[in-house]
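Fig. S4 source data, part A: sequence.
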Amino acid sequence: MVRLRTGLIIGALLVASPFVLQARADSATNAVAAWDTDHDGTLDLAEVNKAAAAEFDKLDVDHDGTLDMKELVAG
């Protein structure tokens, strides 16, 4: 019974894994498209830092330069 259940779980993971990998690829593709300000198909450190700073600013609702638990949970 345990072997059957383990086999079913492993089988389900193997069936689902291509969808998970595709979702990650789609997410990465969307991130590159959104953050690639010079449209060269890559992200350099300046582009990533700019995107991170913009996200931080959105989360830092009290504009004190730090994120507390309320801001992180609400974000």
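Fig. S4 source data, part B ends here. The chain is about 75% helix and 0% strand.
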